[in-house]
Specification:
Layout (H helix, E strand, L loop, with lengths): L5 E3 H8 L5 H8 L5 E2 L8 E3 H5 L5 H6 L2
Antiparallel strand pairs: 1-3, 2-3
C-alpha cells in the first residue's frame, strides 16, 4: 500500500516557500528531512507531515543578507 503522506521534492519546496529545490536538498543533507522511496519510482519522496513540522526558517532566511 502506498503512503499518502509522501510528496515530491518540488511540492515540499512549494509548501516551504522556496523557489528552488536546492534548499530542500540542503535540508535533506543536514538531516532535517528524511528521504523515502516508493516501489517502482526513482524519484525522491518526502513526508508531507515532516515538511509541515519543520521550524519556519524561511522567514529568518529573508532577513539574512
Amino acid at each position: 500500500m502506498e503512503n499518502p503522506d509522501l510528496i515530491k521534492v518540488a511540492e515540499a519546496a512549494h509548501i516551504l516557500g522556496f523557489k528552488q529545490r536546492k534548499k530542500i536538498d540542503l535540508l535533506i543533507k543536514e538531516g532535517f528531512l528524511k528521504v523515502h522511496t516508493k516501489k517502482d519510482s526513482k524519484q525522491i519522496w518526502l513526508s508531507k507531515s515532516q515538511v509541515l513540522d519543520l521550524p519556519k526558517t524561511s522567514a529568518i532566511e529573508t532577513l539574512t543578507p
